Amino acid sequence: MAKQNIYILGIESSCDDTAASVIYNGKILSNVVANQKIHQEYGGVVPELASRAHQQNIVPVVHQALQKANIKKEQLNAVAFTRGPGLMGSLLVGTSFAKSLAYGLNIPLIDVNHMQAHILAHFIDEEGFDKPEFPFLAMTISGGHTQIVKVKNYFNMEVIGETIDDAVGEAFDKSGKILGLNYPAGPEIDKLAQLGNPKAFKFTKPKVDGLNFSFSGLKTAILYFIQREVKANPNFIDENLNDICASIQYTIIGILIDKLKLATKQTGIKQIAIGGGVSANSGIRQALKDGEQKYGWKSYIPKFEFTTDNAAMIAIVGYLKYLDKDFAEQDVTASARLKI
Ligand code: KG4
Ligand code: ZN
User: Fold this and answer.
1) What is the mean pLDDT of the chain?
2) Is the CB of 275 within 6 Å of ligand 1?
3) pTM to 2 decimals?
4) Residue of 278, 279, 288, 314 with the most ligand 1 atoms within 8 Å of its CB, for mutation
């Protein structure tokens, strides 16, 4: 990659995190995220509230990102923003802000696909983190996404499997809700699972052909199981919480690993990069490491702050596109269902 002195501001607002980041060449100078706590009360993201919170957060978040990077906005070479996919009201805030800023500074505007960004986050220069070599498989797992993508080059990607209903993070969060845990329940289930027996309770894995996923049946199975057990013993959840969490996590990870095994078999590619909030899960991390021994995989897990929704991943894509002079026009619009 040719080294030039390029500063890019990345802006992310596709869901419930307002984020801004400055990247200098391939290196992140600042990565600011404002989480929206308001959704916790509702047990999930409320789109109208998310949009309103983005409007309140965007100016201070961008200001902080520039300040932490120790640069003035006039030094920026381009503004990159998430065009989609995501919640329309949320995307519109980042899109309009990025457009106005680029217009005001008279610098290029760069549109970024959020799903590509989760994958290309692996190309941020970060000590101790290797970059995957092409071609590789990327599995993006979060509260909003579950995809397996064949990545042939930076911008040549093919979705080879995805969820037909809930995302894997939702499977964690909705199971947690059934157990009375707070939203988002993924991290808590992970913690409780460490002290439980993963084989204490058995949940049937969904049968979905090929590389697609389904998680809604599992959620229903867990709900019925808990209802039945609680009827017989009102203290069932409290008395078995660690085992229940360990069993749920074991089942979900089993589903992901089965699909990865199939994907590596079908494509012949054994390099696997993961991204999205669920890649923080200790079980999936261990399963990928085990896969290196058992199946000869090479796995890549990015630094945590680049794996949940963030703007550093938007900034790195902005940088890669800047080098290609792949700019957007001022009439570019947000796209809630943007495809890879
Ligand atoms: O990427 P992210 O921050 O936001 C989007 O959904 O795009 O991912 C959040 C999701 C939530 O569903 C959360 O429960 C899940 O990631 N999550 C985890 C863990 N940490 C976060 N799930 C399982 N184990 C974890 N350690
Ligand atoms: Zn995301």
Assistant:
1) 95
2) no
3) 0.94
4) 278
